[in-house]
Structures are given as structure tokens and as C-alpha cells.
Amino acid sequence: MDGWDKPVGSSVGAMMSKDNGSTPTSPLANRSCADLKCYMVLFEAEKTAIGSICFLAGPFTFLENALVLGVIAATASLRQRPSYLFIGSLALADVFASCFFTTSFLDFHLFHRLDGPIAYLFKLGGVTMAFTGSVGSLLLTALDRYLCIHQASSYKVVLTRRRALLALLALWSATILISFLPLMGWMCPTGLSPPCSRLFPYIDHRYLACWVSFILVLLTLILSAYALILWRANRHEASMTGLQGAPTGGQARMRLDIRLARTLGLILLIMVGCWLPTLSFMLADISVQLTHTQQRAFAFCSTMCLVNSAVNPLLYALRCRELRVALMRLLGGLSEGLGCCQRHVGRDSTTTLPLGEGNSCSAHSESEAPRLVSCRPNTVSEMVGKQQLDMTGK
Prior knowledge:
This protein is mainly alpha-helical and 394 residues long. It has helices at residues 8-18, 25-31, 44-74, 76-79, 82-110, 117-150, 155-158, 161-179, 181-184, 205-244, 256-287, 292-317, 321-335, 338-343, 380-393. It is built from 15 helices and no strands. The chain is globular, with a radius of gyration of 25 Å.
């Protein structure tokens, strides 16, 4: 490692001799870099495969997340709910990811665009902002659901719309600051030469270590929140079974904690499966010198983060019955034509949605809560309250 600080020309021989069995070209390419071309390591077949993923996932991610944003923005009852504000923040971050990541990744690896440090760091900052905002929004959504089940009686007081907006402001302020620190000056002092990152040009290892640590902390908090949700649901179901006895006949249905475990397991499997390989390569880049093969593997793994952004609306937004009802009403209003639209000028197209109070508890999917007679929020706390009312009625 000490030899990396010496001039490249005078230390090439020493670097070659210290390589333990690697091919002579790969260590040299990884230890000395004259321009951005040494980061463009994909073969033609790999360009085709990864380019196909980006061309398919990019527009699909943009369209579905823009649809979620449009439904929330056009529905007054959803805009007032902290849960849907967090889902909207997640959709916005994933819209950014579909734009920044797809264009910059294809521009760099497929079309070999050689940008200067400022242009490259601006594009990379946009990608970092998108994915950091996405993970941060996932954390706010997990915390919202945690408060919903652990403090169901005081949820409306604890998590108001104002506090939700302040949380989003803090999240995006921190995200923008962290993402553009390299552009503000925290870049590798040696430009493209070692010991800079071999995954991202101009990036200092210390900045990469800080960002990876920050993302790992967010992911750990998300896992902890969902683990506590599942634990609380399991305790509740056990207590209800002990008080009411085993359900019989038409009352039999899958326990809430089992349905929660299935749903949350799917969420966590997708999230960890998409993020863990990418973060592992970043941690390896901090500690060891990566080869071209490892750089190519990282390029493929990084596209999994875009796939995660494409899956997020399906897991967090479109599975919520309220949002689907709002979407159907909006589409129905559009299909009626201009005449119908003119009759509703000045009215929100979904003001008649029976969505309950403005700051109801968190929006959960149908697999996380039973169907209710009305279109009230599908939340764990509502199921808890309904069962408690049933018990007192008996």
C-alpha cells in the first residue's frame, strides 16, 4: 500500500512483483489510471446484458413511480396522511433513480462518455441522492408502521402531518448534503491514481466508507423496525387466541403474524438481495485492490439497486387498497372525457373517497390486515381495535 503514493512510472515494477499470482495486466490496470477508460471494463456481451436491464427497468421504474406520485398528489385524502407522504417520498426517490442511474450508467459504460471531474461527480451525486433517499424513505415507512402497531392509541398525536413533513425535510436535506460532498470538495486527492476508489472515479475511500456505513445503519434500523412489528403482532395473536380460543368454521383464517411474516419476509428478501452484493463490493473496494473481473461484477450488481426501485411501488404502494381505489377513480374520471372533467372543475376527483380521518394509521397491504367493511386504512392497529371491540361486545 505504501508504494501507491509513489509516482506511477517509478513503482510499476514493484507493484508487479508484489502481486500474488494475479495476471500482469490486471494489477497494472487497477493500480495506474490515466483517464476514465480504465473504469470502463465491460465486454460487449456484458454491455448487451446490462444495457438490456437498464433499458427495460429504467422506463418501467419511472412510469410506475410517477403513477404513484400522481395518484397521491391528485388525492387530497392521501396527501394528508403521513403514511402516504412517506410512500410519495419513496416514489420520488425511485423516479430520480430511474433517471440519474439509467442515463449516467449507460452514458459511462455503454457509450464511453469521458466527462470531467465536475460533470462526473454531479451525475454520481444524483445517483447517490436517489438511492440514499430511497433507503431513507424506506426507513421512514418502516418507522411509521412501527409507531402504528406499538402506539396505536396515540398514533395520530405522535405522528402528525407536520412532523411527517419535517422528517422528510430532514431526510432530503441530509441526503443532498451527503450525496454531493465529493462535488463540494471531498474527492480523492490523487484524482484517478491510487489510493482512490476503483469502482467510482475521483471518489475518496474515506467518503465511500462513510456512505456505506450510513446505508448499513439505515438498513439495520429497517430490519429492526420490521422485526419489532412482527414480534408485536405475534404477541397480539397469541393473546387473542388464548382469550377467544381457536377459530372454527367460517372464522378460521390465517393468523396475522403469519401473514405479516410472509409479507415482510418478501420485502426484506428483495431489499437485502438487491443491496447486499453492491455494498459488499464497496466494502471490498475500501480494503483491497479490485480486479477488472470484480469491477465487472459490481457493474452488474449495481443494476440490482435499480431493480429494487422498480419493485418498491409494487411492495409499498400498489398493494395498498386505498391507493388502488384512488387510482381506479382517477382513471374512471379520465375515461369519462372532457365533459365529465368540466363538471368537476374546482373539486378534487377523490374527495368522496371514504378513507376515514385525515391522519389515520399507516397504510398496509391487504396481506398485512384483514378486509374491513368500509374503506378504512388496512392497518394492524385497526385489526387490534376491532378485535378488542368484539371482545367487549361479547
